Amino acid sequence: MAASELIQDTDDTPNNLEVTLITVDPPPPLPMTHLVANGNLSSSSPLSGVPRGPSGARRPGDHKSASLEDSRSRLIGCLHSGLKRHRDYVKIAVPQERANRLPREWWKTGVAFLYALFNLLFTTVIITFVHERVPDKSVSPPLPDKFFDYMDRVPWAFTVTEVNGLMLVGLFFIQWLFLKHKSIVARRCFFLIGTLYMYRCVTMYITTLPVPGKHMVCAPKLYNDSTGKIWRVLQLISGGGLSLTGSDLMCGDFLYSGHTVMLTLAYLFIAEYSPRRLWWYRWLCWLLSASGVVCILVGHEHYSVDVVVGYFVTTRVFWTYHTMANTHALRRAPNNLLARTWWNPVFNFLERNVQEPVPVVFSWPITLPSSCTQRYRSVDTSARDE
């Protein structure tokens, strides 16, 4: 029942009752979706004016409705002006460019390279000193090894290990050349190589194992001949410590296996920074890595514990580093136990400006000159015209 009809039927209705009847049938609420679209008022607003009688004049008691409409009009005007003043209150976060979130920072890569180079050189020095402490085979025979009990030695097996290792390193180097963010990947690779070989220096020096097989021929000991030791260090560096080059003549570098480190680390980097659709490529590299590790044991060049420890140390350090690098929230988390590693300050230095996981994006390693690019475009345009 409308309030105006009640007022016409009962002229002697008290004023207070009139106010009560007006509030019985309140007007519908304003649809806010019509008010805030683009910060302007919509033409479909229900405020079309105050109801009037048949002759266009205001009915008795309409002054209350008029005051209510005036209040609403002032409120809507305030909202409208506020929306106009604060029209930019919704801020859309525009992501930064990928180049800024993944800076190259080649100078940090150079620092990581020097770190790896120092530890590799330090490893050759430690091997030279440990070689002097290796007991003679006649005094300390090889330790019992369960794998050696079931598998006889195959002489050519260790050659397969080194060939597989060189193939994996070569494949990763070619893959690295075509990566867009090659500076970050190289930085991580150098840091992990340096850290793993530093760990190897510690384990080799504190525990010297006897030779794992009587077939091994070790170079004679030099004792106090410092000049001879320097030449051996240089010979080991020049040949890369490989049996193929004839530079692996010293013994004592058993715990843990350096060949296992390189085979495992090369595969992990290949798998991490290769497209997921190239599953056959990753499986091929895994076969090269796994067969190379097994051939170390088949050739009786290392104890089984050397290979197992080398595998576990390499994989755990690699996974820990990349978990922290790919999960940005972990770096500042107060309960991040991974940040308790001793190399966490070095990690923060190398990865401070890397704000997201490194995508697997390839690009040409050499940028073509602008003149060649323009010439190609002109030729391509003429071909389309024909």
UniProtKB/TrEMBL annotation:
Residue spans of biased composition, Low complexity class: 42-56
Transmembrane regions listed in the UniProt entry: 111-131, 156-178, 190-207, 254-271, 283-300
Annotated signal peptide: none
Stretches with biased composition (Basic and acidic residues): 59-69
Keywords of the record: Lipid metabolism, Membrane, Sphingolipid metabolism, Transferase, Transmembrane, Transmembrane helix
Region named Disordered: 32-69
Protein topology in the membrane: Multi-pass membrane protein
One Pfam family matching this protein: PAP2_C
Protein name per the record: Phosphatidylcholine:ceramide cholinephosphotransferase 2-like
Ranges for domain Sphingomyelin synthase-like: 250-323
GO biological process: ceramide biosynthetic process; sphingomyelin biosynthetic process
CC terms in the record's Gene Ontology section: endoplasmic reticulum membrane; Golgi membrane; plasma membrane
Protein family (similarity comment): Belongs to the sphingomyelin synthase family.
One annotated GO molecular function: ceramide cholinephosphotransferase activity
Reactions it catalyzes: an N-acylsphing-4-enine + a 1,2-diacyl-sn-glycero-3-phosphoethanolamine = an N-acylsphing-4-enine 1-phosphoethanolamine + a 1,2-diacyl-sn-glycerol
Subcellular location: Membrane
Main location: membrane
